[in-house]
Each structure stands twice: as structure tokens, then as C-alpha cells.
Amino acid sequence: MPKINGNEIRPGNVLEHNGGLWSAVKVEHVKPGKGGAFAQVELRNLRNGSKLNERFRSADKVERVRLEQRDMQFLYEDDGLLHFMDAETFEQTSLPADILGARRAFLQDGMTITVEFYETEALNATLPQKVTCRVAETEPVVKGQTAANSFKPAVLDNGVKIMVPPFVGPDEAVVINTETLEYDERA
Fold first, then answer.
1. CA separation for the pair 154, 136 (Å, rounded)
2. Gyration radius from the chain CA atoms
3. Closest CA to 186 of 168, 161, 159
4. Residues of 34-43 as b/e, b for ≥16 C-beta within 10 angstroms?
């Protein structure tokens, strides 16, 4: 594994630190008036989700880990576990359902997602950036309401509440951005 300097850490990097695998969430470079500069890094443990704030000086060396990314198909959920299948090898992998957090509601049967592996251990899962959902209920379309930044509440078929433009009516398909959990466009 390549070693990098402490000032080369970027958000999203996966590091081996204190015997665990950590993902850099936030990185802030600090140059105090007295003493040397350092990087203040907020780390999240990929195995148990705990957080840690650590300072790295430019002279510090850390192990950067490269995770293997595989596209896998979602099969089913039971007992708090999500089960996925590799489309090429047909191997099945399980991850805890809470790994997706609020994005869990957008996971659909048969959906292809990206699962990150360290050696043979599955650590993380990422949904596609855009997912199509159907609006279950919203206020009716009001004729003449075309204000540029007006939005109204809507409930999607998966139970998630979002804000949609006034022209979107019930039973319409909309595209949701899974990173921001917001309306993106009509489907």
C-alpha cells in the first residue's frame, strides 16, 4: 500500500490508521501563527462508523488504502441485512441496512449499486446518483402558479417526503438525486 504525507490527505481517501480502516470525511489545512502547519482531519471508521479527529503534519506518513469497487445487484433485505449479488461471479454479500442511512428508502429490488471491498470484506455501498420514484401524494396543480422558486411538499411511493415544483402532480414519475435527497427533474 502506498504511503502518503499527512498534508496530501483528501476527503474520501481511505486510510489505515491505528489498526483500523478510516475514511477522511473533512480535511482542513491549518497554519497556526506559531509552529508548523498541519491537516485537521475528521475520520470515520468504515467498520463500526465511529468518528475521530486527528492532526497530521506534513512529515507524518499514513497508509492510503485502495478499495476495490464492484457493481452488485440488490436482492432482498432480512433481519437488518441487505443482500447483494455480483453479476459476474454470482457471489452473494451482506451488509447492514443502516450503512445507507437515509438513502435506504431509495434502494429498489434489482437495483445495481456499487459495493466497496477491502480484500474480501465488504465495507461500503453507494446508490446510483439518480433514482426514479413515483409521487404518491401532493397538493393539486394550481393553474397560473409559475413562480420560479416555489416548491410544494410531496410524499413519494417509498414514504420519503420531499419538495417538488408546483407543476408536479400525483402519480407522476420524478428523478431524485440520492446525494442531496432532493427533486432533480421529471422522469
1. 8
2. 21
3. 168
4. eeeebbebbb
